[in-house]
Write a structure and sequence with these properties.
This protein has one helix and five strands. It is α+β, with helices and mostly antiparallel strands. A hairpin with a 2-residue loop joins β2 and β3.
């Protein structure tokens, strides 16, 4: 009998840092991407990883708190599991 391989799934978003906006552009690995940051000079960066190996599956630049809320919800769910 052969083992069934694990089917990877995407984990909740996690905050990894702030990207700097300079002269209306984000510098992503030397590539300057136009970005309207309004009055902000940074933008939060979140990643979602694969459950299988922790590799990055998605990168998100957020102008809202949706990914921060997702990260908090995941942490609260983990803490609830530990308590039960």
């Amino acid at each position: 009998m052969t083992a069934t391989p694990e089917i990877p799934f995407i984990l909740p978003a996690e905050f990894v840092g702030l990207a700097k906006i300079e002269d209306g552009h984000l510098n992503i690995g030397g590539l300057k991407v136009p970005w309207d940051g309004g009055l902000c000079d940074t933008v939060p960066v979140y990643v979602r990883r694969l459950s299988r190996d922790g590799s990055v599956a998605e990168i998100h630049l957020a102008r809202h708190d949706g990914y921060a809320q997702e990260e908090l919800d995941a942490e609260n769910a983990r803490l609830d599991q530990e308590e039960s």
